[in-house]
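Notes to self after the Tuesday call (sharing in case useful).
The group wants a holo model before anyone commits to mutagenesis around the pocket. I volunteered. Ligand is pyridoxal-5'-phosphate. Logging inputs and output together so the record is complete.
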Amino acid sequence: MIPRHRPEYGLKDLLVALKPAEDCLCRISADLNRSFAMWVPSGRAGLSLLLRAVEAKAAIVPAFNCWAVIEGLAHASAEPVFVDIGQDLNADLNQTLCAIERASPGTVLILTHQFGIPICSASLLIEAARSKGMAVIEDGAAAVGGVSDVGPVGSAGDASVFSFQFTKSVLAGEGGLVLAGDQLATALKREGKDLRQRTRSESLSQWLKLAALTLFTNPRLYAFTLYRRVASVGTLNQKGSVAPAEVFEALPAPWMRNLASQTQSRLNAVLAARRRVASRYLEALRDLPVTMVPAVASPAAAPIRFPVLVENRNQVVRRCAGGGLDLGRSFSYVCSPGGFPRAEKVASQIVNLPLSQRLENCVPRTIEIFREAVLGG
Ligand SMILES: Cc1ncc(COP(=O)(O)O)c(C=O)c1O
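Result:
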């Protein structure tokens, strides 16, 4: 059974991570020209910290989004101001410009690079926000290694956030990084003062969880896992879920930060493999009645998923499961209610094909199963 995702580390990496190593925090902040960097418990915790640091009352975000973003906003008591999305699944340019124009004081622009696809016209959006005196936070949670028209993801706006959760290209299991300039350093330190170190048992259970994940996402073992059992019906969409408190409180343990360093040093190879896989899907599936996003394979992208829109999602998911491909329903993406037709359509039709470097050898079989599922085999 081909898993929906295989994280980009092996058991050996987990063992090596137990030894002291250089922290990648300085390397990443220097590469992105940010003078201040700090570890955070998760991407959503980083968003919350940043929103509190700039005293945001509201934030402009795409209506099709990861539920974790909505949790981050709620944690900071910032109201979401939704905008619909465009064909690249990122916030629509004109709607975002309108939202900036109409924004009330205290609104922040969040620049999201969904699935690692860099948002277009970032420079225009930043300029529009700046002209209104609005703070800009770059949500590069899923896009480490990507490049937008203003430079490497993470270097734009007033501050940025990355997620190092296990599905990302640089990973620590859980955790993230907040990057900013000097002007926000004091506020960020203040807002982050109550973050705590992970306890030994939290650290150990995270290590064991990652060890189990890398073992069981091996296609030969995947058939014995829980995910295999729910492949045709799916796991729950996380909309409305509430993350455990530690997601906002507990910093990554030292071994988790070491794992981030290791995976960061392999980032270019991982991204090259993912773009290669994406190009193969785009080529092999182009005659199917599905919608794909060519930008996933662009050299500027740092893709973490290969999104495909299909008409009859439940049926396609079921057929793929029957054929040996778990697409699951791991779509923890929300479409916010209230007139965002494109976001709504994407949220109801999206499936993700596996994109990990560690599943590259499964690409021919994935293509075969998916084609049959869509064409009614
Ligand atoms: C765009 C975006 N922002 C923020 C997050 C939150 O990251 P985390 O899961 O580390 O809280 C995610 C999660 O995948 C995301 O996709």
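Two things stood out.
The chain is about 40% helix and 15% strand.
The pocket of pyridoxal-5'-phosphate is lined by residues 42-44, 66, 68-69, 112, 139, 141-142, 163, 165, 176 (CB under 6 Å).
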